[in-house]
Write a structure and sequence with these properties.
With 121 residues, this protein is mainly β. The radius of gyration is 13 Å and the shape is globular. It is 0% helix and 48% strand. A hairpin with a 4-residue loop joins strand 7 and strand 8. The strands form 2 sheets. Strands 2, 4, 5, 6, 9, 10 and 11 form a 7-stranded mixed β-sheet that branches. The chain is built from no helices and 11 strands. The chain starts with a strand and ends with a strand.
């Protein structure tokens, strides 16, 4: 499966962005999906993971500011980010994985998008 992120950009502190990820094939009940980010010189950090089955179970690393959702009919996943801070500046990636679900662990994912840059200033 191929993944393409969009929605990044430059935003002021306190602003919001919604990132989108579209998959090239149906992810329903096949893949788990996740959002990660990586700032220069730092490790890739897990932000959210969501199951694509009917439960839609999700995990967030940051409660309150970020939320994750999906639209299985459109093979889409979203990351809504509010109250953005300078430290949120990073490249943001979506990922898909099969098998055991490690929602915030990069090693739980097999497929990655190219990323979308988010800059908060």
């Amino acid at each position: 499966v191929q993944l393409v992120e969009s929605g990044g950009g430059s935003v002021q502190v306190g602003g919001s962005l919604r990132l989108s990820c579209v998959a090239s094939a149906s992810t329903y009940n096949t893949y788990c999906l996740g959002w990660f980010r990586q700032a220069p010189g730092k490790e890739r950090e897990g932000l959210a993971g969501i199951e694509t089955n009917d439960t839609g179970t999700y995990v967030l690393s940051t409660q309150g500011r970020f939320s994750v959702s999906q639209d299985n009919a459109r093979n889409m996943m979203y990351l809504q980010m509010n109250s953005l801070k300078r430290e949120d500046t990073a490249m943001y990636y979506c990922a898909a994985g099969v098998g055991s679900w490690w929602p915030l662990n990069r090693y739980g994912y097999n497929y990655w998008g190219q990323g979308t840059q988010v800059t908060v200033s």
